[in-house]
Amino acid sequence: MIPTIFFIFTLLSLSHASSLVVDFCVADYTAPSGPTGYSCKSPKDVTVDDFVYHGLNTSGKTNIFNTSVAFGFDTQFPGLNGLGITIGRLDFGVGGVIPLHTHPRASQLIVVIEGTILAGFVSTDNVAYIKTLHKYDLMVFPQGLLHFQINVGDSNALAFVSLGSANPGIQTLDFALFQSNISTSIITATTLLDADTVEKLKDVFGGSDLKFVVDHESVRNMQY
Ligand SMILES: *[C@@H]1O[C@H](CO)[C@@H](O)[C@H](O)[C@H]1NC(C)=O
Ligand SMILES: *[C@@H]1O[C@H](CO)[C@@H](O)[C@H](O)[C@H]1NC(C)=O
Ligand SMILES: *[C@@H]1O[C@H](CO)[C@@H](O)[C@H](O)[C@H]1NC(C)=O
Q1: Which residue's CA is minimally distant from atom 13 of ligand 2?
Q2: How confident is the model at residue 29, as a pLDDT?
Q3: How far is ligand 2, taken at its centre, from the CA of residue 54, in Å?
Q4: What spacing in Å lies between the alpha carbon of 54 and ligand 1's midpoint?
Q5: What is the pTM assigned to this prediction?
Q6: What is the mean pLDDT of residues 50-61?
Q7: Which end of the chain is less enclosed by CB atoms within 10 A, N or C?
Q8: Given a cut of 50, is residue 49 above it in pLDDT?
Q9: Is the pLDDT of residue 134 over 70?
Q10: Which of 178, 162, 30 is nearest to 88 (CA)?
C-alpha cells in the first residue's frame, strides 16, 4: 500500500517538467552553484549513492511547535539536482503544529502515514481550504500559498511531503515576523499588532526554550 502511494506521489511531483538535456546532473558541491542549481558532477564520478538518501530514516529535531521536519533538498541529496523534486518527513507530537508557511518555488503534496492531521491553505483571494486528513489521504497545496498542518489526533502523527522543486524554499510567517531582525516598530506598523504582543512573540521565537504550550482540547475540537 505504501509503495503504491509513493509511486503515484512521485509521478505527480515529476510532472513538474525538468529542463535537463542529460539523464541527470548530480550536484557537484565543490563547484559554484547558480540560479538553476548546482553544477553537474562528472558522470564518471557518479555512484548509486548519489541517488540514495538516508536522511529521512529518523525524525528531525523537535521544534517549538512539537513537530519536527526533515528534508531531502538538493543541498543534502545530490541526485535531486535539476530534477525538480524534493521529499520531506513531518513528525507530529500530540497537538503538534506546522505553522503557516509558504514554499515560493513549488507546489506540495502531503500524504498522511499515521494519525489524523488537519491541513489547509489560504488562496490569494483570502479563502481558506481546510480538511481533516486520515491515514493515506493526500492533499495538495498550490505553489506559493500559505499553508499549515496540525495533529488533531490523540497520538503522534507522521506524514511525508513531496515538492516540485529540488529546492522549494520555506518561509514561515511566525519566523519572518518574530525571529528575523525586522524591528518591532515596523511589525506594529505593518500588522497593527501591539508592541507588547510583538515583544512577547519575539521572546518566544528568539529563545531556545520550549515555551509554546499546545492547547490539546482546542486542537482536538477543530472540526473540518
Ligand atoms: C539512518 O541512516 C544512516 C546512514 O546510512 C545510518 O547510519 C543510521 O543507522 C540509520 N538510522 C536508522 C534509524 O535506520
Ligand atoms: C508533544 O508531543 C508529545 C508526544 O506526543 C506529547 O507527549 C507532549 O505532551 C506534547 N507537548 C506539548 C507541549 O503539547
Ligand atoms: C539584519 O541583519 C543583517 C545581517 O545579519 C543585516 O545585513 C541587515 O541590514 C539587518 N537588517 C536590519 C533592518 O537591521
Answers
A1: 213
A2: 96
A3: 26
A4: 6
A5: 0.87
A6: 95
A7: N
A8: yes
A9: yes
A10: 162
Q: Which domain holds residue 193?
A: 179-220
For the cut 90, the answer to whether the pLDDT of residue 88 exceeds it is yes
Same domain flag for 142 and 200: no
Q: What is the mean pLDDT of the chain?
A: 89
Same domain assignment for residues 77 and 143: yes
Counting from 1 in the atom list of ligand 1, the atom nearest the Cα of 54 is 2
Q: What is the CATH number of the domain that holds 159?
A: 2.60.120.10
How far apart are the two ends of the chain, measured CA to CA in Å?
26
Of 144, 169, 194, which residue sits at a domain end?
A: 169
98 near 160, Cβ under 8 Å? no
Ligand 1 centroid – CA 55 distance (Å): 8
Mutate to test the pocket of ligand 2, among 65, 94, 158 (most ligand atoms within 8 A of CB): 94
Pair 212, 138 in one domain: no
